Records
---
Amino acid sequence: MERRIKISLVALAVRLAIAPFFMHAGDLGTIYESSAIVLSGGNLYNFVYQQTLQMQHAAGLPVFFEGYAYHPLLIYFFVPFYWIYTVIAGPTPVIIGGHFPNLPVLIYPWAPFAILMMKMPIILADVAVVYVLSGIDVKKAELYAFCPYIVFISAVWGMFDAIVAIFLLLSYLTFTKSSYAMCGLMFGLSLMKLYTVVLLPLYVIRLFGKWRQLGEFLLGFLITLIPVAYYLVFSPAAFWNVLVGFQGSRVMGGVNLYNFIWIVPDVRFDILLSLLPSILLVVGVVYVAVKYGRGLPLLEAILAVMLVSFLFGKVMNEQFLVSIFPLILLCKKCDRRLWVAPFVFIFLRSPFYYFAIPILWASPYFYDLYFQADTIWRLLQTEGYLMIPMYAVGVAFSLLILWNLLQVLKSTHSTAAEPAFSRSFSRALRIRRR
Amino acid sequence: MRFKSLTTFVVVYIIALSFIPLIHQTLIAQGSWLGYGTGAYAFQSPSYFVLFNDPSDGSSKPNIHVNPSFAPNERISLVEFSDWTSYVDGYNLFNDFNVTLRASPKILDATYTRPGLVLHKFIDLSSPNSVIVKFVANKEVSAHFEMWKWIFTSVNSITIRDAPKPAVLPISTDIDFTFNDQTQAAVGSGEISLSRVPTQIEVWPFENGFNRVTVDFINSEMTFNVSGFVAEVGQATFTWNYAYLPYVLPAIAILVVAIYLLAERHGKKDKDLTRRSRR
């Protein structure tokens, strides 16, 4: 059997063996709940918007319901698998609730099967990354296939950043093969989580002056925006609130230098302060895209923009690094051990039940063990002991991102390609103005 | 040079931001209701810290803490009102009402509504010496309110020896209580003044004291004026708590940044040495 296929199959087997027994209650619960709403013909954004309005009315604060706040296309990767699940197990809900801070209610024996089915698109995306990478470098494919961090995010927690990763990787590869329409399409699909939107200026700058190629790219990209346009026309308030309002008003934090905000219990102040990283993010991304967008090889340019957005952007959740991990593996300048920091962070931040359900809830003996461990974790958390290592890891990860960013940017410095680009870019602008 | 400036900027940025929690705690968080999380509110005055939990939780509605003068960062719970176990006209405050919260700088207004019944719970910190918890209903109601603490050593001079089983206290508009705080080697006392005469006051034994005081009344209005004081009796041992975090984070930031700069410098040195040896 071809080695490429062998690695992909082993990666699939590892993930399938783990997947039914664990879940990230909030994120997987959201996808499960959203799939059910879509299959019953409901409007996801209206549902989330209503929940937010209720929360805001009750609390008198600018708080948001943490539900489905993603690209409309995303849910259609999951709905077919949810449908297969309902055909086999019936339509009765088996994962109920679970939106932070509430615990989910799991109905056995079907809950593990539902969890497996909801993780299938993520696992397939992971396997696709392994397959594509092994066509370039088998060793790098192996690193991705068996990296504990990647396996944890996709198979244990069921977070869908691997879907972003495969489309981002394909977007890069199709660009290098001069297939610009496909590149635009793949890039548009990578927006399943919105944080890759920072790459749009880079692609535009990269193709600036090559009008036909730019047109093809934008055409491919615009196809993926059709569902966005649909929701903007038919439920504008809900769509805008859920996507723009929620993402724009998100309080900073995560595996980054901003997680100190978690000990500042003042949501209005926190939102106001979170404008600072947003401003720096815009400035940083525009600066890197304009200054280095053409001077750097595309791989390094993509990584530079993504790294600058991770460094200054306000939210950097544990799973975000998955999206660029295949590109990091392909880049000689980056340190592939970067995953260690978010992986460590997972164990500091997450409540114990994020590692225990459904498997430890299925028997009274295991539940008792889980309960004891959870009590200790909550005690440490309440006293603030965990916040110290969390902050240290957050700052350290930001600095490691800085280090990687500098390595990537230094590669142009030596080739002196950047001034050449700056000159050609300003010349192009002058011509346009005339 | 440009890359060095970026490193300098990030390093200064990290260290500067690490002081934000401390600045917020000392300059902004004092003396007004602040909302956080999924709808919880907190108020820090020079003497009291008051927490009002978010709508999904029936405990701490509110939880009144006292900050001892000998350890201002400590928060010792004085008394906790519970919605889980409080009732108005037989309806549970947590399960049977819709609750909305609105805050002005000194007063938090929790409005409980159900068909035909509207109840306001105002938590007023206008006075520096006490915390006022005031109930106002749109009609006369029969109410049962529970206040919890682990544990009261005495309530209106009655101890566990006098009342080993749940006991009804003589009707009064004042509830005085005492408690011990072993961590801080301190003894505390508190007072709850009621604005109306209750129909019943009852204490509930737990371990070496009481963990609950329940107050029943029939009225459309009732004010609980809560005040307390904690005195040091022995040598308090320093115990870490959450309130110290703002002081620690800048030190962590400086430490991590210093390690990064040292590692970067070391890395550069190694690189230079490798280059030289290759030559």
---
Amino acid sequence: MTAPSRDRTVAATAGEPVVTPSVAARLPGRSLLRLGPLSLQIRRRSVLVAAVLVVLLAVAFVLSLSLGTPYVAPADVLHALSGAGTPYDLVVLDLRLPRVVLAAVAGAAFGVAGTLIQSVARNPLASPDVIGITQGAGLAATVALTSGAAAVVVAPAALAGGLVAAVVVLALGARHGLAAQRFVLAGVAVAFALRALTEIVMITAEAIDGQRAQIWLVGTLAGKGWAEAAWIGGALLVLLPVLAWAGWALNSSALDDDTARGIGLRPVARRIGLAGAGVLVAAMVTAQVGAVDFVALVAPQVARRLVRSERPPLVCAALLGALLLVLADLAGRRLFAPTQLPAGVLTAAIGGPYLMYLLLRGRKRSS
Amino acid sequence: MTTLLSRPVEAGHRTGARSGRRIAVTVAAALVLLLTVLASFALGSRQLPVDQVWHALVSPDGGEASTIVRELRLPRTALGLVVGVALAVAGVLLQALTRNPLAEPRILGISAGASFGVVLAISVFGVSTLAGYVWFGIGGAFLAGLLVFAVAARTREGASPVTLALVGAALDASLGSVVYALLSTDVHTFESYRFWVVGGLTGRDLSVAVQVLPFLLAGLVLAALVARGLDALALGDDVARGLGNRIGLVRLGGGVAAVLLTGAAVAAAGPIAFVGLAVPHLARALVGADHRWTLAVSALLGPALLLGADIVGRLVDPPSEVPAGIITALIGAPLLAILVRRAKVVTA
């Protein structure tokens, strides 16, 4: 959203080079990568931002492994990570590492989901946790958790819940277009109702199931680790071809429908594909770590500002999401120690003001 | 003129048959409320026949029925009455003052401000009496209201219904998580306020309802005083001024009333959502846009809705209970979705 009116004129030209790469080589700030029949234009700034984010993520990762009781010096953390067999192996590798890896993977997944859905809706507010998709996944997962269903059922149930919620929100709010804030508000209403339903399910459940669901619902990483990270990572891996395609397709999703059709694209089919992938990832990650609010909202938009691009960049948003969630989880663990705050509380506390900031910035948008 | 057209019901304002209908509706609303109050005494995990309820209220004999009625159901019914009136009237005031059909204490983030104030008072300042923290609730409601309007007014669309609601939702989410953080650092407070955070009528004794009463009365008197001014305000600032209204005074009075009512209601029962949204719309559909009637009918239907939600919450899965705030959210959220869909909503 930085200097939008200028970006908008860039967008008109930025879409074209995807089809005619020879033009792209001449665009400022971009390089062209050719691998046989494949050609990819790369924004140099995106690469730089991604590199910086990777470094920051690594630092946050090590910090997260080293802080806590007992404190483990970063050097020892690295030593333990290298598999040398230190006395800190138990704390670092067995207790902390699974959780931190989960935070990174889940954060990345939230970033990806947010990017996909926001890009399709062309609306920075239309992130899965604001418009009720996360809450739909939450309701379905709570029902599965409290009805004594097998653990295997929880993730598919959450997926179905997220998809159903997305369809409901679309049916309710799409009348005036996805870009309108009215669509977002319809989503907020759906989110409200779904959260109320979830709470009813929790209260009426057996006490122990209810407590399990309550903990799950706040969005915490405590007591979770490899299993959950594997589910999310697996989902991302399975979706990798789709995501790779999305990274390319997003370039043109910022075009208006007529222009897109004019250069031979099928905008509607592509939008359904992108949004479907976004909902899938969002539901998947929510099923595993619960409703960690606002990462999917914040990561794509901040990444977009860092990269200074017209649309949220997929890779940088994923990295930023990972960084955000690792930091939120670390802050939640250490801020009021020994009391642990769920990461979801931290992200919501940051995300709410950021949402307001987005609304404030909105007035400068040209469209 | 556009604002006039965007009001839901304005036609038929002058017809004589209208006032007869309004009286009938008001009487019916009062009857509904009476029945709900009776049901609130009689229904629950232990059903009591009406004559036993009556007996327990008039001449308590210390038996089981009279203990249930007087110790458990009387306090929550009284609290439901007080809070229901407060929230519904606050909703009417906010919708009229902002000319915004989506205005509601919870949606605008005012309830979130109030609960933040209350939790701050409890966990940081160690205030433990309602008489003490109700002021924090009112202060929080006031500041949150100011913040939401200031932010919304600076957005691209201005303080339109949709932006106000979005800013309110953002504030609700972030303050809600801060409240959770404050509460969860203190296990003792967390246990006693876990249900308060959701909004409900359980576990309060009669003194809570009594202590909130003065704030309710002050808010109601103010609301009654500005009712005519709100009618004029619906026609737009210029027309209202031309008709001889002091709109600054009307806004101030209405705003103070809304903040008093919301702050007190939240301090007593937690941030119960959507009573302030649903009831004013229902009242307007029944008696039109004349605010004296809308306020009166809302004050009757508000507690009826809240007590109804409380009763449903008791009956869903006895003996455990679903807090009334969850039931009202379930009823109110679809209404919000319908209102958002309607083309009329967007004015700015």
---
Amino acid sequence: MRWVAFVVFAAFLLFAAYELHPFGELDDSRMDDYIISNAQNETAANNAVTSVVFDYRGYDTLGEATVLFTAIAGALVVLRRVKK
Amino acid sequence: MRQDEMTPVVRTIAALIFPFIIIFSFYVIMHGHLTPGGGFQGGAIGASAIVMLIVAYGARNVKKKAKEESLSIFESIGGLVFVIVGIIGFVAASSFLYNFLVGEPLFGTIPPFGSNPGILNSGGILPILNIAVGMKVIGGLASVVLVMALAGGDEE
């Protein structure tokens, strides 16, 4: 039974690997072209990666910071010693 | 000598290297909008400096200088600055986290198009958000490692 599951799963993975998009050939590069040509004017920053992370996708970074805050709050609640 | 301290050689070298690591961390955070890096990476570097102090001097000696409560307040200030800057963008301009500082004298210089060396006084709200995230990561990681190191020893 385990081998059947393995074969089925591996067949799925191989099928998916054959269906993968070829590496480096874009279907659609409108987003990239827009960011490359407009990021310096719109965010006044040279680093386009930072302008995506903190400006175009700033909401996502806020969520990341919230995840960090939640993880740290959980660790502090579990591990901190309370004075008796 | 206390049990959780390391030898004087290690402590001296750690105290010598500590300011340089902190300066490098501030460099990575402040140049987040110009070079690779940013708030998360620079914050991890700064937190590793505090972790080095914890390893060399012991958690209880570090706790005398920086309690985990104050580190966690530092972290919360970073998160508050992030959200407040986002809300200022919502109020002053069109949307949440809008880059309202572009074109202003503070952080507003628009660089020329294409590759250029970069201007530190540019980026709009990006440097402020980088500093906020850097404060968050430094305070958070350092307080977690400090609390874990304190939880390992005996109660005093």
---
Amino acid sequence: MANKRNPIHIALLSLLLSATLFTVSCKDEEVVVEEENELITTVKLNFTSGGTTQSFKYSDPDGDGGKTPTIDAISLKPNTAYTLTVEVLDESKIPVVNVTDEVKKESDEHLFVYTPTPSSLLTYTYGDKDAKNFGIGITGSAKTNSAGTGKLKVQLRHQPPINGKASKDGTPTPGSDDINIDFNVTVQ
Amino acid sequence: MNRTLFLYIILLAFGVGALFAQTPKDCDCFIQGIVEDDATKQPIVGAVVFIKELNKGVSTNAKGFYRISSICQGKYTVIGRIVGYKEKSYTISLEHGAEQNIKLYETELHLANIDIKAQKIDNLTQTKSILENAALDQTRGQSLGEALKQISGVTTLQTGSSIAKPVIHGMHSNRVLIMNNGVRQEGQQWGSEHAPEIDPFIAKKITVLKGAAGVRYGSDAIAGVIMLEPDTLPDSTVMKVEINSVYFTNGRQTVNSGIIEGGSNNSNIKKSTKIPYSIGYRVQGTFKRGGDISTPNNRLANTGIEEINYSLSANYKRKNWTSDIFFSHFNTKIAVFSGSHIGNISDLIEAIKRGSPLSIYTPETFTYNIGRPYQDVLHNLLKIKNTVKNRNGVLSLTLGRQYDFRKEIDILRGDKNLTQLFKLRTYSGELIFEHKPILKLLTGSIGVNSLYQENLTTGMLTKPRSSTVLIPNFKNFTSGVFLIERIVRNNWEIESGFRYDIRHLNVYRIPRSGQNVVNNTQNNQNFTGTLGANYRPNARWNFMANASSAWRAATVNELFSDGVHHGAASFEHGDENLVPEVALNLSFTANYVSKNFQAELHLYNNYINNFIFLSPTGRPALTIRGAFPEFIYTQTDSRFQGFDFNGIVQIAKNLSLNSKISYLKAQDLSNNQALIQIPANRWENTLRYDWKKTSVSITNLYVAKQNRVPTKIIFTEIPSSEIIFTEYGGDFAPPPAAYSLWSASASQQFAINTKQSLNISLTINNLLNTSYRDYLNRFRYFADEIGRNIAFRAKYFF
């Protein structure tokens, strides 16, 4: 009796084993994962004065890493008042996504910051306001001073509310950068 | 002087006389029983059973029977030591108070019948630390990483206080294997901020095996193995319930877990031709909810957690066949401190300079709300195990299926959601045959384990859509065959084994600069071996020595990372050309047990060739969001050497002192400097007072400053003009100062009646609300560690 193998037991064991394999192989379909990422690939600065507009672009079409981005060198006339508007695009998608509209919609969480180096190169003033009277920076004015060279740092600070409490206070301190790029500037 | 001496002698004589005046019957107690193998139920001949407090012992006879007589009344610890088996200890009380019923038979007062059911152990010659019973109860409510911190040699790699990964001897992630009820836990464990997706409540025992255990478990067990094992299911008609309830004041966190288990068998049927069978089942569930935690000075915004887990298991035993099925569901949502998601280098440097988070990140009001950024992790595990015993040995087949779905939801960027999704399916199988002793000498096992997994992060498996995912889609197949044999002879045990593994990795990705799908494959194979010896010269001493090798092929993140790792605010580059790591671990352990003192010293020396790690380059990587610190996965020859010490000394009757020391020195041999991110040395002392069913303790943990850190950038091809983080070998800040933490705890057991029990305890962690930072916590750049935390625990069971 000890060594006799009960056929019923063998059948049960095989059934259990095959049931396992069955459940294992059934779940093999491929799954499509939804994409939710959105990139900022392009930042365009438009300087308008006396009817003419000059555009300077920062373009990084493949996102972080990969090919190095192309950055236009900004060239402006001295002692001139320009209207400065910015466009933020995602050119990796077809059709191109205009991220500036989204930023405008959520202006209470965003702040563009323009920092010239040296600070005497040009002076920026905000031309727009959000609901709390803080600047946004999608449009503003840039007044160049005497001739010189330097850099213009363009930042888009994202300052979302934390735990329901707003963090945007008009200064660049809160939040983190969605854009932080440097353009070379020549005023001549 | 002479008069005092005379007085002393009189008193002594009285004292001695008093001893002799005790009734002879009080020292006529005896302890007896049978020692048998828990699995085969066969008696074990030649086992040593001894009483720790008296250091008095005997060996079992041919029937497995032992008897220790002439014992005085008292409370004792009986220890069963059988070569080839786990040591078992039991506490018994041969006492009677004056209020006890004098009608009790003498034999009941003076006899204790203790049958020792011994369990065979897989790995004889490697050091194990076990967390069970009261020690495990003290950790209930904590995550797995947190719970294991009390084992010397084990620390944690943290991302805040809610995410903790276990670190054994300085190594973590893919070098620590976690066995979830006998199934290899497979999730996104490569990530330094990915905590193990396991509910510790499923386990009644957590074992940490320190050292390379590659031969038995396969690739990745370089630092060790953590095994979570539930209790064996009941096999008789019984129903048991256990409810655990924990409340932590810091974060107002509640954890509730319950187990119902039962069984049934046909032993009541009296029929000579019946085939005995039994069934058992268990239903378990855990619910956890916590809100924002506080450091000694601030509340940290967005540091809550929510978790819902449950598990179901059942088994069926019939004659020589056992079938087990186990299913577990783990689901957690962990908020990540908003003040840690720093954008780029300039923000990082500002944050470090500030020393503490901006006030927007340290709100006055408390909330349970989990906002962005947060992690949402789901892990399902199904295990089916069949075991058949026959006259040649035991054959078991374990099949597992796991589904791990991780979502990392980042703060809104450019208005749209930024979510990284990781879907991992793993199928595993293990077939092992443990044979009965050959030539009455050699016992061992032979087995094969295989694993197949598919990882999806974008599009479809072979057709990815995005090039900006953190790790690409892949298919991974590994398989290994092993043989382990041991010889037991008198006081010696020698164990040896070897294994052959293969790995085939198939990656589908879109490189950054391209548009087309690229398919990379990697094939690796390796031999690993183990040789160990265990020598027990007497009941007090035990010596173990072991030499083991293990290997690990590079994982997908190490090979193909290329982008900003948002959680870490770093730009990481993988290296396709990384070759597998090969480790050789030498260890020696000495164990001493006596009436008032027991100690274990574990020494280890681990050489890892081609050790793969993420090293900072010190220079910025430019992106549209600014500059990020750059890191590259690289490899080097390394050596990890150190020791763990654990000693308990009985200072007075109910008072004991437990001291644990861990020391680790990890060296980058190729670059002749310390390795980055190695835990600092520590010394922990606990003074404990035990009295009947009450226990009170106070603990001090001292963690030294980690002075062994890299000082130079190891990438010589990078021109020094590009390097901006030069001071700390590429790190952004020096390691934090040494710190000393106090904690206290008290616990009480109540027996409600013969069946029901209630244990309650109070533990105060960081008693003095000390402000400190730990080198292995990523948040050390931004905020202090958690402040005082009082835990109330209750365990009710019958």
